[in-house]
Amino acid sequence: MTTTTPTAARSGLPRGIWVLGFVSMLMDISSEMIHALLPVYLVTVLGASTLTVGFIEGIAEATASITKIFSGALSDWLGRRKLLAALGYGLAAFTKPLFPLAPSVGWLVAARFIDRVGKGIRGAPRDALIADIAPRGLRGASFGLRQSLDTIGAFVGPLVAIGLMWWTADNFTAVFWVAVLPAFLSFGLIAFAVSEPEPEPDPSREPAGNPLNLAAMRQLGTVYWRVVAVGVVFTLARFSEAFLILRAQNIGLNAMWVPAVLVLMNIVYALSAYPAGVLSDRINRTGLLALGLVFLACADLALALLPSLGGLALGVALWGLHMGLTQGLLSALVADAAPPSLRGTAFGYFNLFTGLALLAASVIAGALWDAYGPAGTFFAGLGFALVSLMGLLAVGNGLAAEDK
User: Fold this and answer.
1) CA-based nearest residue to 24, from 316, 350, 328, 320
2) What are the counts of helices (DSSP H) followed by strands (DSSP E) for the chain?
3) Distance from the first to the final alpha carbon of the chain
4) By three-state DSSP, how is residue 398 classified?
5) How is domain 210-404 classified at the CATH fold level?
6) By C-alpha distance, which of 78, 314, 263, 82 is closest to 156?
7) Which residue from 270, 227, 261, 224 is spatially nearest to 243, judged by alpha carbons?
8) Which of 31, 60, 137, 240 is deepest in the core (most CB within 10 A)?
9) Transmembrane stretches, by residue range (predicted)?
10) Which of 140-144, 239-243, 280-284, 307-311 has the highest mean pLDDT?
């Protein structure tokens, strides 16, 4: 069982954790302002096909997932996290002006690609840096806070974009220029307001320069790979939030209000992630993960059986609650299980495998939707959630032994 020491509880979270949370929030505001409008901009202004939009998004997300594992391992080899995290945020910030300046689809493809490379570079080193800064008894709260602030950015960005589009009479370029500002504020914060602690001594472990090194994979340990397995199974039960939007359209929600689905989900997510992280520092993390799966199962049930506005709102809110109870906690479990000298590599592997699982889950969900309709998709999600819950209970003792 995880406990928080009295000294840690009194002192609160380190300043660096708060700063990294605001770094994530500002960059997410910037990115979501652009990403919320980019598909429409590509199709209506630049004349791109929907196939092109899908290709751009697929390449972008795959690039981010693959880059994370190499940047994580490099941060272990260097023994420094901040340099790579700042490089990733800086690359994303300096790419943002390309979006309003891009004269063609090709330029936007390049901008999106570089932006996602920046995300991939910063992801694993930033999470490892949080694990390095956070006291062991406050890791759940630390990852929960970062997740909450990041998720605030995920719904503030689209809301700001909607307001600016109304104010500027649908001037995409003006909105893209405004999005540049929070990106550079994010980069400035991590560059000048975050201090990296000295690496923890770990004489029994040798850092690995190659993320595909089998010796490094073995050094990560059995408990770590159990956490990865749990994360992958969790992700298979949680397909893309795009299907929440499709369900909203399916029940007849006006297109103007469809984005409110993700706003509601992210508000619940943001409000629950930090309290869940704090609670996980006081009780067994696996118990909260199990509760998160119960909420996911209930969300799937509501979305399958209640094809109404009230049913949609209930399902989306429960979905957000599940995210808040699980995503930060999984990161905390990775930090708990990984050796200090291999934390970057550990987060890289975790992000890679869960990213591939999300892709597989979304493909399966789409195929089921085409074959059996939305009820078939959400009933399958319910089944995956229940199987995941049984798997978590089966390996829970091993995770709980490390979660202390």
Assistant:
1) 328
2) 17, 0
3) 5
4) helix
5) Growth Hormone; Chain: A; (1.20.1250)
6) 263
7) 261
8) 31
9) 36-56, 149-168, 174-195, 223-245, 257-276, 288-306, 312-335, 347-369, 375-400
10) 307-311
CATH architecture of 13-197: Up-down Bundle (1.20)
Under a CB-based contact definition with an 8 Å cutoff, are residues 71 and 84 in contact? yes
Distance CA 286, CA 280 (A): 9
Mean pLDDT of the chain: 80
Query: In which residue ranges of the chain is CATH 1.20.1250.20 found?
Result: 13-197, 210-404
Nearest 5 degrees, angle CA 183-CA 187-CA 188? 115
Sign of CA dihedral 27, 32, 37, 39: positive
CA distance 294 to 291: 5
Tokens for 35?
Answer: 């990403």
What pLDDT score was predicted for residue 57? 60
Q: Rounded distance, CA 34 to CA 338, Å?
A: 35
Q: How far apart are alpha carbons 164 and 172 in whole angstroms? A: 9
pLDDT band at 26 (very low <50, low <70, confident <90, very high): very high
On whether the CB atoms of residues 364 and 81 are closer than 8 A, the answer is no
CA max distance for the chain:
61
